[in-house]
């Protein structure tokens, strides 16, 4: 982070002087769900701790992904299913099909695994976006969206909502492709990126494990957890 420099060797501070909303200004935005679950709060502290090594960090991202999935799937459609219990037959319910998950590579991979452990029958639509650390603009480098996106819902998952650029671009890509219903889930959001995403896409639900204070001058979330991709995959 502190070694981010321009080619001329000067520090590059893309968020320096940029006005940012405070937490209180985004706490009550419509269709924004911030987890209050004590198990989530507990796991978040372990995740943020700089002494948590990559294997444990990845496992925590997956577990937090499963907890987020549980909260984000409360409105999913069900269809009837007749089954036999050991005593008699009954009509139960199963999840209606057509669930897509779009992890924003790379850091979204662990979250997608957590979602998959809860939902099982899903398609994974990988999308690679990388944030240029000097300009903070997201650049697309990989796209495995299928031809048929006539699905019930697609969940976009990415641990960090910082300036909001990666999330906004991803939702734009899914909408241009024709995806009808989109939800977004992240682990940590900065108020700045959350407000941008809410304004750009007022029609999506947003699920967050923790809302942090602000972005620092480099565009990193504070207190945050550092670089979610590097910490999952050990590439420091
Ligand atoms: O809200 P934004 O300002 O767009 O920043 C958030 C993005 O930055 C991180 O990815 P990164 O570019 O570091 O790629 P990585 O997953 O390969 O590490 C993160 O996982 C988000 O995708
Ligand atoms: O704090 C941040 C911001 C963007 N991406 C990360 O991985 N961490
Ligand atoms: Mg990264």
Order of helices and strands: HEHHEEEHEEEEEHEHEEEH
Treating each run of at least 4 consecutive H or I residues as one helix, how many helices?
Answer: 7
Q: Could you list the spans in which at least 5 consecutive residues all have pLDDT below 50?
A: none
What structural category arises from helix and sheet content? alpha/beta
Q: Roughly how many Å apart are the termini?
A: 11 Å
CATH architecture: 3-Layer(aba) Sandwich
Give the proportion of residues in helices: 25-40%
Overall, the morphology is globular
Q: In the CATH hierarchy, what is the class?
A: Alpha Beta
CATH topology: Rossmann fold
Q: Average pLDDT, to the nearest integer? A: 95
Enumerate the distinct ligands.
1-O-pyrophosphono-5-O-phosphono-alpha-D-ribofuranose, uracil, magnesium ion
> How many β-strand runs?
13
Number of domains: 1
């Amino acid at each position: 982070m502190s070694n981010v420099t321009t080619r001329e060797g000067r520090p590059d501070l893309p968020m320096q002087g940029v006005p940012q909303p405070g937490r209180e200004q985004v706490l009550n935005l419509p269709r924004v769900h911030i987890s209050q679950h004590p198990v989530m709060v507990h796991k978040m502290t372990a995740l943020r701790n700089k002494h948590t090594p990559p294997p444990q960090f990845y496992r925590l991202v997956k577990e937090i992904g499963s907890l987020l999935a549980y909260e984000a799937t409360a409105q999913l459609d069900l269809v009837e299913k007749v089954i036999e219990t050991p005593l008699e037959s009954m009509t139960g319910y199963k999840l209606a099909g057509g669930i897509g998950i779009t992890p924003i590579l790379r850091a979204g991979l662990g979250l997608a695994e957590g979602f998959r452990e809860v939902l099982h029958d899903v398609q994974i639509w990988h999308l690679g976006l990388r944030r240029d650390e000097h300009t903070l603009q997201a650049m697309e480098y990989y796209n495995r969206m299928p031809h048929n996106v006539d699905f019930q819902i697609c969940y976009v998952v990415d641990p960090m909502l910082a300036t909001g650029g990666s999330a906004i671009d991803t939702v734009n890509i899914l909408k241009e492709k024709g995806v009808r219903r989109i939800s977004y889930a992240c682990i940590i959001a900065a108020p700045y990126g959350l407000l941008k995403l809410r304004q750009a896409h007022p029609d999506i639900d947003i699920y967050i494990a923790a809302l942090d204070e602000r972005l620092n001058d480099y565009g990193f979330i504070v207190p945050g957890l550092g670089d979610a991709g590097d910490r999952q995959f050990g590439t420091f």
